[in-house]
Every structure is written in structure tokens, then in C-alpha cells.
Amino acid sequence: MFHSQWTNKNSMRKHIVAGNWKMNGTLEATQKLASEVVNMYNDEVKDGTEVVMIPPYIGIQEVQRLAKGSGVKVGAQNCHQEESGAYTGEVSAGILASWSLDYVIIGHSERREYFGENNALLAQKVDQSLRHNLAPIYCCGETLEEREGNKHFEVIEKQVSEGLFHLNADQIQKTVIAYEPVWAIGTGKTASAEQAQEIHAFIRSLLAKRFTETVAAEISILYGGSVKPGNAKELFSMEDIDGGLIGGAALQSRDFIDIAKSF
Ligand code: PEP
Q1: Three state DSSP letters for 223-250
Q2: 90 tagged catalytic
Q3: Which atom of ligand 1 lies nearest, measured to the CA of 248?
Q4: What is the pLDDT of residue 2?
Q5: Is 224 touching ligand 1 by the criterion CB < 6 Å?
Q6: Which end of the chain is more exposed for a tag (fewer CB within 10 A), N or C?
Q7: Taking CA 169 as the corner, what is the angle to CA 237 and CA 218, rounded to the nearest 5 degrees?
Q8: Percentage of the chain with pLDDT > 90?
């Protein structure tokens, strides 16, 4: 198995389980899911694991209301790259930060694919979120075609370096990275724990080269792609996997919390 020489599971790296609700969440479903997650989190999740709910923009305020005082964090699925202005339908990082959000997902593969977001644009979004003290969860991951063509290392290196390597050490330490192989998202096909570990260790080695070994050892790298209660333990036991970005299973409170208990 590929180990990064910079790994240290005993470091101060945060364990994070973030639930990306995508375009799901009527008012009623939002209230039910958020209150169940908060109650189960309080009763069952041990200190030290950060649990994040990431609903559509319109559900954020209600989720925050229900999560208040619980320790469960709340994030957004996207932000605009500009500070403010005439961008109808968009939401800036500054607006999100003013609502006291903790995280924002940047560069999810669905944004890259359906909304044409490229690394240069995503670098601007990362800058905006950091400017407003919102921790970006920067997503990267190869398609099936890229993996089958043995291009996955090249693709990941390009996504990570073009999206994040303009940052300084302080900024990168506030950033979370999510490795999400596109072929494993919403398909029921999970990368094996070894495949995921290999890429996580590779990402950490890139970070160590660009920044320092100490900085690289502190950055949480999440895995995403059909994570379920049945495979989370094995994935999270890998030395460079610090948690998960969860799609489908985040819509079931029981599954989501069971995943958060898998460290
Ligand atoms: C995701 O969309 O980030 C994701 C990982 O989805 P799923 O867990 O459904 O594969």
C-alpha cells in the first residue's frame, strides 16, 4: 500500500464527516433530517469528530436554528467568486460568512461537470471563502475514463495545484480537501480503501512538497464516493483518510450518524 512519509494519524488533524444534501430538502424534510441528526449527534458521537450538515442555501438558516448549541456545524454547497454585485441568483462567500457558516464546498464534481467550473475559477472561490473565514472543502477527483487511462495522478495533481497552490501556509491549513473519484459518486461503487489511501497519500505528498511536511500533516483530507455505514470504518482506518464527504447516505440520519461513529 502507498503510505505517505508525512502521515501522522496522531497529529492534530480533524476528523470530519460532512453531509452534502445536494438539491434535496423541502422545509419538512429539512426539519426532520436536521433535528434527527442533531439529537443522534448529541447522544452518540464522541467528541473530536466534527459533523457538518450542508443543505441547499435556502435551508441553511433553519438547519442552523435546529443545530444551535449542539456543536453540529453547517456549511454551504457553493459560493460565487466575486465579492458582491449584479450576479442574479448567486450567493457570495461574504454573505455566507455573515450568516456564521463554518464550511463551503468548492469544486464538487457536479459543479465542474454541469456548471463548467474549472480550476482557475475554483481558485478564486477558494480565495473568496478564505477571505471571509469560511473553510473551503475543495473537491478533486478523476473520472472513470481518466482512471482507466491511468491519468488519475496527473488529474489530481492538476486540480490540487491549480486550485490551491497559490495559497500561503496559513491559508492551506484552513482548507479541507475532499478526494471524490467521479466514478464512485452516487454510483454505489466505492473506491477500495487501498485505492483511496493511495490517492490521499499522494495528495499529502504534493502538499508536503509545496508547503512543508508539518503543514501537510495537519490538513484533513476527506474521502467521498458512496460512503455507507458498511464501508466507512475500513476507509476511515486508513492513515491518510480523515473523514468523509457524504452524499446519498447523508439524507438518512441513522446512516449519516453511523458513518460519523466509524473512526
Ligand atoms: C458526493 O456527492 O459528494 C458524494 C460523495 O455522493 P455519494 O455519497 O452519494 O456518492
Answers
A1: ECCCCCHHHHHHHHCCCCCCEEEECHHH
A2: no
A3: 9
A4: 56
A5: yes
A6: N
A7: 20
A8: 92
Q: Which pLDDT belongs to residue 243?
A: 98
Q: Which of 15, 80, 108, 132 is catalytic?
A: 108
Q: What is the pLDDT of residue 21?
A: 98
CA gap 47, 90 in Å, rounded: 35
Ranges of residues in the chain whose predicted pLDDT is under 70: 1-11
For residue 257, the one-letter residue type is I
Domain 16-65+72-260: CATH superfamily, name plus number: Aldolase class I (3.20.20.70)
Mutating to test ligand 1, I would choose from 16, 17, 20 the residue with most ligand atoms within 8 A of its C-beta, which is: 20
Given CA atoms 210, 211, 213, 219 in this order, what sign does their dihedral have?
negative
What is residue 189's predicted lDDT score, i.e. its pLDDT? Answer: 85
Instruction: Measure the CA–CA gap between 127 and 109, rounded to whole angstroms.
Output: 19
pTM of the model: 0.95
User: What is the residue extent of each domain of the chain?
Assistant: 16-65+72-260
Give the cell for residue 175. Answer: 482548507
Regarding the beta carbon of 227 and ligand 1, being less than 6 Å apart is answered yes
**Ligand 1, atom 4: nearest CA belongs to which residue?**
247
pLDDT at 11: 61
Ligand 1 atom closest to 188 (CA): 10
Q: Given this model, what pLDDT does residue 176 score?
A: 98
Q: Do residues 156 and 197 touch, judged by C-beta distance below 8 A? A: no
